[in-house]
Amino acid sequence: YNSEIQRSEKMEIISQLAASVAHEVRNPLQVTRGLLQILGEKNNNGSRSSTVSEENYYQLAIDELDRASVIITDFLTFAKPQMEQIVELNLAEEFKHVEGIIVPLANLQGGKLEVNMPRSLRIMGNSSKLKQAIINLIKNSIEALEGSGIVRVWAYEEREHVVIHIADSGNGMDEQMLARLGEPYFSNKSKGTGLGLMVTFRIIELMKGTITFKSELGVGTEAMIRFPAARYMQTNAKVI
Ligand code: ADP
Ligand code: MG
């Protein structure tokens, strides 16, 4: 029992450390990327004609930096270095922030996002973690559209639970792929990390939620997340 406590304290320290590192590393990555781009362009326009392989090196370096950024995004977009707070969250507000981040991405990659969120839904959890989990799911849906289609998000209360649906008209998955979701490094994308859903599943579990998927190849995918409603958790706490 004692060693369990130590283990979770260590996990807490590790995740706080990871959050600080992510914040610190993102900036130099961006700066380096910008400099490489300038150097690459200078070399292209300069009188001295650059070799094809030299141009490739710049592009390769930029691609690798982008890859590092994607890993940080899948893991730690919203990670906050301070202690994790569990508070009552209003889903409509959380999703407003998520939309702010996802809509530009959808515009860039093609595909539409439609969010239908009643104002009254509340759950207990950590805001940064919840947003990270939802972003990873919606990002997958947008990527599955491969340029055109729609991602629909809606939610409602059902007895003591809040239920969130994220449905896309993307390329879908067969049973074997569905069974492997959340497995670290399982990815079918050339630039995927295969870490997004692993992180998402862990967060949902920590927030006492569950997630299930329905999918059909060539038709689309629907994720359904269930969290205990905040109202119910508080009532319960009062009873105890
Ligand atoms: P990544 O997105 O980096 O590949 P994820 O853990 O987020 O890693 O997803 C793992 C894999 O699951 C994806 O590569 C994709 O094949 C599949 N997948 C996840 N979500 C969807 C979806 N909405 N539609 C189709 N395939 C999906
Ligand atoms: Mg992903």
UniProtKB/TrEMBL annotation:
Histidine kinase domain sequence ranges: 20-231
Highest taxon above the source species: Bacteria
Protein name: histidine kinase
Residue window of the full protein shown: 405 to 644 of 644
